[in-house]
DNA sequence: TAAATAGTGTCTCTAAGACATTATCTG
DNA sequence: CAGATAATGTCTTAGAGACACTATTTA
């Protein structure tokens, strides 16, 4: 191809003389919402332990937001994609390498980082609970798993001349053994005859750095959505698990109880039964399953 | 709050002395896949016109990819979000202002722009076919609507020791009155015991600039997915439309035929009937509906 | 009246919800 | 045996698929 541009240059010539302009560029960070599921202590030898959905946060050691908790992440380098940056951060933070990783959303509100112009390309990672026990307080003692709850507090609907604005107000609670962080995040859906848009905003926030409450909210909503029509939740499971455990994971993600019979029908194609069983429970043993690698 | 960092600075002092580092930053562009639906000419006075899904492309006037067709877009400025940049580009390109807009994905592969390090935060916009007729060849005669088809060509599955790789090969065809662009895009899903990932890659490409074939593929898949469980397709409709027209729009998006009775049941809650009817068709008139602004 | 589209009725099939029943382990 | 969980059976309900039938307009 030897097409010439209006200066009479070929593409090769153009690229050779090309100089990166002086216009301002943003920094781009990859921030990750790393989920896992852990067991709580069982009440008695007979009862099963309960499951908790957890997210990894890191206490900030420097300004801005010093002392606040932030998602693991860091700036994307020129030689890598945002996904590679996320993978690198994940390995640095947890030592884990081979996980489910999905890009969520790119946040670019002005002022979201008081230092300079920073966009955040956010990712969600799912780590199975076995892998993660090993590498918890890796290097920084300030990396901690927080239990997550995310609940609809209230719902408002305001009518416009043509259309409406619907606001869903969610409470995000993150609790570690020592601290409890709470944020309230609004999801505002504006619907008009031709347009429609959804905006997240932070109503209140105590303890989380930057706009990370928004990012976590976004991740939970994605996770809840996908759980219903994909095998995504299986990435939170160890290699062998019981169907009751899997159901508990679904329940803790969706924050609602499911019926056993219907649940088992629904996940039947996502798992494969093994001939192994749980042992030494104070009750009937349960068959162990693994993730199906078919389809 | 007067927490001090390790240099003994308050947050205010830290921000005052903060200097943007010298590490390299990417340019970030907002690129948009703008969809609309138009009628083809009817064969006879009796037949209904057919619908076509169309995408707006702009012929590049300079290097790189001179003469190739690209998605409308441009660099994000320091005073705006990626979404605002997309809205601005949309207005500049089509004159349209109030549309459905949704962020898709941020592409950051190295070398995706031969000039320099450029990430693309991509958006999908849906414009109703009435609005768009007006402002077609706005300023640039090189902005043209291309008819889109996106079809699965073949499917491969390769087994690994533990897991598998499944590749879906899609053919993307874009045709205007003068040109036909064809690209083949692979969606590769790698599934292993603990991880899973999906990667798009361009297998062949004639006529499209950059990695825009990937972005268009991504947009069509999002659109197809959302059509089934949301009212997203209604943003492609004019204020008044018949249910047959709406069905045609669903069919052209999904590239498959739907059953009338089932379709009408499914969209019943998304639309509101009016007391108006089509006129002067060579057959029974059809009731006109509008989009429901409830729920 | 023929050609075409508009619109509805209804049977079937599948999946999910609800709930009851049986099975099996451990202390 | 009591207490707990495991696993399955089945009735009901909701929605989609399939297809047939009736209705209404214009040249």
TrEMBL record, chains A, B:
<dbReference type="InterPro" id="IPR036390">
    <property type="entry name" value="WH_DNA-bd_sf"/>
</dbReference>
<dbReference type="InterPro" id="IPR015797">
    <property type="entry name" value="NUDIX_hydrolase-like_dom_sf"/>
</dbReference>
<dbReference type="InterPro" id="IPR020084">
    <property type="entry name" value="NUDIX_hydrolase_CS"/>
</dbReference>
<keyword id="KW-0378">Hydrolase</keyword>
<dbReference type="InterPro" id="IPR000086">
    <property type="entry name" value="NUDIX_hydrolase_dom"/>
</dbReference>
<protein>
    <submittedName>
        <fullName>ADP-ribose pyrophosphatase</fullName>
    </submittedName>
</protein>
<dbReference type="InterPro" id="IPR036388">
    <property type="entry name" value="WH-like_DNA-bd_sf"/>
</dbReference>
<dbReference type="Pfam" id="PF00293">
    <property type="entry name" value="NUDIX"/>
</dbReference>
<dbReference type="InterPro" id="IPR020476">
    <property type="entry name" value="Nudix_hydrolase"/>
</dbReference>
<dbReference type="GO" id="GO:0016787">
    <property type="term" value="F:hydrolase activity"/>
</dbReference>
<dbReference type="InterPro" id="IPR054105">
    <property type="entry name" value="WHD_NrtR"/>
</dbReference>
<dbReference type="Pfam" id="PF21906">
    <property type="entry name" value="WHD_NrtR"/>
</dbReference>
<dbReference type="InterPro" id="IPR011213">
    <property type="entry name" value="NMN_biosyn"/>
</dbReference>
<comment type="similarity">
    <text>Belongs to the Nudix hydrolase family.</text>
</comment>
<feature type="domain" description="Nudix hydrolase">
    <location>
        <begin position="26"/>
        <end position="173"/>
    </location>
</feature>
């Amino acid at each position: 191809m030897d097409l010439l541009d209006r200066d009479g240059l070929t593409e090769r010539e153009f690229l050779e003389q090309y100089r990166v302009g002086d216009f301002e560029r943003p920094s781009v960070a990859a921030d990750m919402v790393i989920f896992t599921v852990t067991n709580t202590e069982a009440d008695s030898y007979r009862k099963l332990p309960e499951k908790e959905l957890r997210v990894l946060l890191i206490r900030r050691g420097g300004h801005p937001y010093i002392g606040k908790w932030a998602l693991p992440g860091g700036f994307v380098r020129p030689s890598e994609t945002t996904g590679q940056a996320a993978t690198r951060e994940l390995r640095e933070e947890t030592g884990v390498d081979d996980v489910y990783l999905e890009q969520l959303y790119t946040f670019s509100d002005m002022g979201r980082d008081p230092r300079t112009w920073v966009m955040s390309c956010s990712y969600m990672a799912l780590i199975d609970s076995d892998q993660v026990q090993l590498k918890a307080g890796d290097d920084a003692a300030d990396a901690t798993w927080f239990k997550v709850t995310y609940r609809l507090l209230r719902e408002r609907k305001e009518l416009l001349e043509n259309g409406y604005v619907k606001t869903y107000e969610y409470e995000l609670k993150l609790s570690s053994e020592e601290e409890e962080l709470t944020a309230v995040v609004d999801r505002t859906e504006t619907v008009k005859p031709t347009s429609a848009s959804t905006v997240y905003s932070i109503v209140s926030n105590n303890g989380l750095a930057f706009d990370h409450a928004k990012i976590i909210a976004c991740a939970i909503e994605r996770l809840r959505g996908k759980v219903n029509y994909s095998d995504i939740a299986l990435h939170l499971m160890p290699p062998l698990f019981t169907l009751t455990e899997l159901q508990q994971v679904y329940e803790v993600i969706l924050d609602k109880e499911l019926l056993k019979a219907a649940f088992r029908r629904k996940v039947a194609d996502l798992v494969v039964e093994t001939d192994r069983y749980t042992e030494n429970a104070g009750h009937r043993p349960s068959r162990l399953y693994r993730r199906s690698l078919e389809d």
